[in-house]
Amino acid sequence: MIRKPPRAQVRQAAGMWAFQAALDRRGLGPVAGVDEAGRGACAGPLVVASCVLKTGDAARFEGLTDSKLLTAAARERMYDLLLERAQDCAVVVVPAAEVDLIGVHVANIEGMRRAVARLGAHPGYVLTDGFPVPGLTAPNVPVVKGDRVAACVAAASVLAKVTRDRIMTGLHEELPAYGFDVHKGYSTADHTAALREHGPSAQHRWSYANVAAAAREHGLEPPHPVARGASTAGVVQNGAPPHTGGGRLATRRGADQMNTRAEA
After folding, report:
1. Cystine design at 239: which of 18, 92, 137, 138 (Cβ 3.0–4.6 Å)?
2. 190 labelled as ligand-binding?
3. CB count, 10 Å around CB of 199?
């Protein structure tokens, strides 16, 4: 049974720390925030992070907010500070192949479960960004725009985004034709043009409509299993250690070899 904070008073003066402060006052801490990066991208992994911040540490995290609102330099500084000062944190990387196999929403939910489970200490309460996450092992509640109103969720968003951006920059070294270091796998005009010219790579999400369309234009088959019904109607703009293998361009031969191994 999920415990809800019994009429906890959220003090507006507490700002980004109000939710955590209210839960702590009711003895429901430590409070973990969970968020993801890369849900709307059509290439690269989905990265999910969880983070527990120390009560009373607000002054040390001045400027903490939704990672998308921070500059790249500010995110890097905040990332380093979080690794130094956070009470606990965990990061889960879900490879593109797994996203294709189970679908992005299921992968997101599963990633959030893993991120909470990998915390060093079991949290007393979990705040998730925007939607409920069934199957968490701690009482939890979704917070609308959580990465902008709850410090621990914002912290998780920074950990997830910086981790994913670094992975995508690394993939650019293997696959420079796509410009992953710039658009990080999202469907920008340049990325769309590269997809049409080269076809998708093994690091693309073949269950996404735009990737599948580019693959058909080049006569390519998925280099990894794609679950039926996993295809998305479009791309939303917006575990395991980092997976960077299989970064070559997809080929008919490579796809055939992969399918043969899967059938075996």
Report:
1. 92
2. no
3. 19
Strands 46-52 and 88-94: antiparallel
The reply to whether omega before 222 is within 30° of 0 (cis) is: no
What is the arithmetic mean of pLDDT over 76-83? 98
CA distances to 104, 135, 149, 160 from 152, rounded to whole Å, are 23, 20, 9, 12
The residue whose two tokens read 């939910």 is 109
Q: Known binder of ligand: residue 24? A: no
pLDDT tens digits for 118-171? 999 999 999 999 889 999 989 999 999 999 999 999 999 999 999 999 999 999
Of 57, 35, 29, which is closest to residue 154 (Cα–Cα)?
35
- Return the pLDDT at 229: 58
Distance between CA 167 and CA 163 in Å, rounded?
Answer: 6
User: 35 labelled as ligand-binding?
Assistant: yes
Report the predicted TM-score, pTM, of the whole model to 2 decimal places. 0.83
| DSSP reduced 3-state for 52 | strand
The count of residues in the chain is: 264
